[in-house]
Amino acid sequence: MERVPRRGPGEALSTADPPAEPVVTARHRLEYWIARSFAAVVAALPWSAAYFLARRAGDLLHLVDGRHREIARENIRARYRLEDGSALSETEVRTMVRDVFRHFVSLGVEVVRLQPEMARRPIEEFLTFEGEESLREAAESGRGAIIVSCHLGNWEIIAAAGLGIGRTPTSVYRPLDNPLLDTWVRSLRGGTGAEVVPKSGAVRGLLRALRKGGIVAILVDQDARRHGIQVPFFGLPASTIPTPAELALRTGAAIIPGFAIRTGPGFRYHTWLEPEVTVRKDADHDQEVERITAELNVRLEAAIRRAPEQWLWLHRRWKSSPPEGDLET
Q: What pTM does this model have?
C-alpha cells in the first residue's frame, strides 16, 4: 500500500514555526472592500433576490477564474462517474462546474446572513435534521465525538447538531490568505455558536475538548500532502489526513460523519449525522488508522454524490496522488 510519509496528528494540523505576522497589501484591501460591499447588498435583499444576485456573480466568477474552472473540469472528467460507471458528457461537466461556482457564491451569501437568520426565526424553519441519536449517545456517555465532514453544502450549519444537544462544538479552520477577510469571516463563523481554532497547533485544543467529553468538527477532504496517507477517494488514491482516526484511538471518542446540503427552495438545508465509525483499539495501530481513514473517504464520497454540484471540485484534491494512480506498490 503506497503511503505518503505521515506524522502524528499534532504535526498533521500544525506547522513547525509560528505563522509570521500577516502583511496587508493593496490587493487585500481591494478584495475586502469588494466582499464587504457585496455582503452589504445581499444582506439587505429578500432571499430570492440575494440568491439571484449570487448566481449571476457565480456566473461571472466562472467566466473570469479560468484556473479553478479548469481544475474543476479536469477533476470531474477524471474522477466522477455515474452509478452505471459512465462518465458525464462534456456538456454535463461544464454545467456542473458552472453550478459549483454558483453554489459557493450562494454559500457566501448564506454565511453573511446566517447569524441574523438564526436570531430571527427558529432553526427548524430552514433546517431539517436527522441522526442526532449517535451524537447524543456519544456525548452522554462522556466519550466525546469527532464530527467528520467535508466542503459540501454548508458545513458551518453542522455546528447546529452540537448546539441541539446542548454542547458547543469546536471546529478547525485554515486562516485565509487575506488577513482582513480572515478576521471578518471568523466573526461570521462565530454566528453558528461554534468555537473555532486555527489549524496551526489545533490538536492540543481538540484533545482537551475530547477528553472532557466535548464535540469537535474536522473537514478531511483536502489534499494532505506529506502529512496524509494514501487511501481511495472517487476511485483513485488521495492523500488524506489521519487526524480523526488518531484522535479517536487516543481518546476513545466516537467518529461520526456529518453533512449538510442545500435542498431549497431558497435557504433550506438538510443535515444528517451517520452511525459512528467502528474503532478497534486492539487492532494494529497503523492498519486501523488506514482502515478508518479509508472508510471516512467512502462516507464522504457517498454524501458528495447526493449533491455533487455542492462540493469543492475547484480544489486539486489528488495533487499528491502517486504518479501511476495506483495504491499497489
A: 0.87
Looking up cell 454542547 gives: 167
* Residue in the block written with cell 452522554: 140
CA torsion, ordered 73, 76, 79, 84, to nearest 10 deg:
-140
As assigned by CATH, the class of the 9-14+24-310 domain is: alpha beta
What is the C-alpha to C-alpha distance for residues 256 and 113, in angstroms, rounded to an integer? 28
Report d(CA 77, CA 71) in Å as an integer: 10
Could you state, in order of their start, the residue ranges of all structural domains in the chain?
Answer: 9-14+24-310
**All 3 cell numbers of residue 85?**
460507471
Strand, coil or helix: 308: helix
pLDDT digits (tens, 9 = 90+) for 73-115: 999 999 999 888 899 999 999 999 999 999 999 999 998 888 7
Instruction: Tell me the per-residue pLDDT of 205-226, one tens digit each, with 9 for 90 and over.
Output: 888 888 888 889 999 999 999 9
Tell me the pLDDT band of 166, cut-offs 50, 70 and 90. Answer: low
Contacts of 255 (CB under 8 A, 6+ apart): 145, 146, 148, 244, 245, 248, 276, 277, 279, 292, 296
Q: Cβ distance 278 to 252 under 8 Å?
A: no
